[in-house]
Each structure stands twice: as C-alpha cells, then as structure tokens.
C-alpha cells in the first residue's frame, strides 16, 4: 500500500504538470503553431532518447511495426500538436483542458467499432454525459452566456480526436509485440523530424527571426518539453505498469481542474458556471465510460498494457 501511495503521488504530479502545460501552450500561442510544436517535441525527444538504451527488452521491429509507429507519430503528435497549437490561439486554456479531458472517453467509444469492444449501458451513459459537458464548453462565451464560441474549440476537439486515433494505432503496434515505451520514443523522434520539415516549408526565415526570444519564453518551452511531454510520459507509463491502464486513467479526471485553476491564476481567465457544470459532466462521463468491474479488469491485464499507449503523453501533454 505504501508503494501505491508513492505511485498515486507521482500520478497526481503528472496530472498537475499536464494541466499546467495547457496554460504554457496557451502562453506560447504567439509562436507560429507548427514551429512551436517542432521545438517542444524536439526537446521531449531528446529527453526520451536515453530510454531506448535503458530498455532491457530489445525487440526487433518489423516493417508493419514501423508503419504503425509512423502512423502513431502522425496522428498522436504531428496532427494533434498542429491542430492544438492553432486552436488554442482562438480559445481559452480552460476550454482546451475540458475538451482534451474527453480523451479516455472517446478512446473507449471508438474502440467499439474499431476494436470490437462491447458498448455497455454504463459506457453509453458516460458518452452522453461527457459530450453534454463538451457541448456546454463549445457553446459557452466569456460572459457565461451560451452561444457558439468559434473554431478554436473545434480545432482543439479535432486535435483530441487525432490523438485518440493515434492511441488506437499504438494499440495495434503493441499487439505486434513492440513495447509501448519504445513506440512512444520512436514516434516522438519521427514526429519531431516531420514537424521541422513542415515548419521549414511553410515559414519564411523572416517569420522565424522575428519571434520573441526572451529567456522566460525559452524557459516555458523547455519546461513544457522536458517535464510535461518527456518526463510526464515516463511517469504515466510507470503508473500504468504499477496500477494498470484503467486505474491510472481515472487520474485524467483531475487535468481539467488543474488547468482551470492554473489558467485563472496565471492567465487571468475567468471561471464561469458553465465550466463548473462541464467539469462535473465530463468527469462523470469519463468515470462511467472507462470504469470496469473488477472481474473484467482482472481478465484484461494484458489488454490493459496494450492500451497504455493511448494514455501516454500526450496531448499537450
């Protein structure tokens, strides 16, 4: 039990950092979106590369495995980070965190048609509650009234969908025998390279040279890449190995709370009644959507390990 308390504390720390990371990404929204994604993912890749050398289990990755890793890099990092960086410029960090908080629920929902998992009444109720919360977020305005809030929320929502699809690709790669931590590291490296190629194509040097290069800005970039994306991924994977994917995923419910609080303190964003109701609906929906009976969890230990890729650093994470 004492060991589990340590793991709980670690996961709470990871969630707090991921919640703060949404605020950091919002702060960095003056950067060209693809460029900031390339820089952050490069920092994270440099943090994660040593993991390959520490990996005790050496696995030969076949052609299909590499194709799946590239697919994971595209969906869970390149598309996700590009959509997120563009979307967050037109919405709040609070709204962003609530939309990203649907990740485990949407993963559970898409696993029904794509992976053949069962759609239970509990899961369906969770989906309805979760998307009810998202509807409130998307229709909310800064004054607390309800009305269409714009494309920023839509882009963030699609970034979350992209990340979930990437997670499902990671599941497929894991079923081919590739450890999820290796998938995470290699996809991070591939994504960083792809993002730099895209940035070099779409941004002229005049745009890059005019970017704010104050020390504090680079401190935020390093903190985001090192702690949130790099070390956060390692901490989350450790939690999954110790507690299992289902129990670990419950901690994701805390990310919207952390982001809303950090956004209010650091960015001066106002907390509205809509945010409170949305948090309750989304947290309840995620809990119902991913919670499994104990007997079912015990029978899916191997499956839980395979699903861990869909809950690793993500997101903005």
Could you list some keywords that capture this structure?
disordered C terminus, mainly alpha, 317 residues, globular, 77% helix
Describe what this molecule looks like in 3D.
By secondary structure, the protein is mostly helical. It has one domain. It has 15 helices and no strands. It has helices at 2-27, 33-54, 63-87, 93-100, 103-115, 121-139, 151-175, 180-202, 205-209, 215-243, 245-249, 254-267, 273-290, 294-298, 301-306. Mean pLDDT is 82; it is low at 295-316. Residues 9-138, 151-288 form the EamA domain. It is found in: Cell membrane. One of its GO terms (cellular component) is plasma membrane.
The number of helical elements comes to 15
Whole-angstrom Rg: 19 Å
How helical, in percent, are the residues? Answer: over 70%
What is the chain-wise order of helices and strands?
HHHHHHHHHHHHHHH
Structural class category: mainly alpha
Q: What is the domain tally?
A: 1
Count of DSSP strands? 0
Q: Approximately how much beta-strand content do the residues carry? A: under 5%
Low-confidence stretches: 295-316
What characteristic shape results from the CA principal axes?
globular
Write the layout of secondary structure elements.
Layout: H1 2-27, H2 33-54, H3 63-87, H4 93-100, H5 103-115, H6 121-139, H7 151-175, H8 180-202, H9 205-209, H10 215-243, H11 245-249, H12 254-267, H13 273-290, H14 294-298, H15 301-306
Helix pairs in contact: 1-4, 1-10, 1-12, 2-3, 2-8, 2-10, 3-7, 3-8, 4-7, 4-12, 5-6, 5-7, 5-13, 6-13
């Amino acid at each position: 039990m004492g060991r589990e308390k340590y793991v709980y504390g670690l996961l709470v720390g990871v969630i707090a950092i991921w919640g703060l990371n949404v605020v950091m990404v919002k702060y960095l929204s003056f950067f060209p979106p693809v460029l900031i994604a390339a820089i952050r993912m490069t920092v994270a890749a440099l943090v994660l590369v040593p993991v390959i050398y520490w990996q005790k289990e050496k696995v030969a990755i076949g052609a299909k495995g590499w194709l799946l890793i590239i697919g994971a890099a595209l969906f869970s990092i390149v598309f996700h980070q590009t959509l997120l960086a563009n979307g967050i410029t037109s919405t709040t960090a609070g709204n962003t965190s609530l939309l990203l908080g649907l990740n485990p629920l949407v993963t559970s929902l898409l696993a029904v048609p794509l992976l053949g998992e069962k759609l239970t009444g509990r899961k369906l109720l969770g989906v309805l509650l979760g998307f009810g919360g998202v509807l409130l977020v998307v229709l909310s305005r800064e004054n607390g009234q309800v009305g269409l809030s714009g494309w920023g929320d839509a882009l963030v929502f699609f970034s979350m969908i992209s990340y979930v699809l990437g997670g499902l690709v990671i599941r497929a790669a894991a079923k081919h025998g590739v450890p999820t931590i290796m998938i995470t590291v290699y996809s991070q490296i591939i994504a960083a390279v792809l993002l730099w190629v895209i940035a070099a194509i779409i941004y002229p040097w005049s745009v890059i040279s005019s970017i704010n290069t104050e020390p504090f800005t680079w401190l935020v970039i390093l903190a985001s890449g090192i702690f949130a994306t790099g070390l956060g991924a390692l901490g989350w994977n450790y939690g999954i190995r110790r507690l299992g994917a289902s129990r670990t995923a419950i901690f994701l419910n805390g990310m919207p709370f952390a982001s809303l609080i950090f956004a209010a303190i650091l960015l001066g964003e106002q907390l509205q009644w809509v945010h409170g109701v949305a948090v309750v609906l989304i947290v309840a929906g995620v809990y119902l959507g991913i919670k499994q009976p104990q007997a079912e969890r015990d029978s899916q230990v191997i499956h839980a390990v395979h699903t861990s890729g869909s809950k690793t650093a993500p997101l903005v994470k």
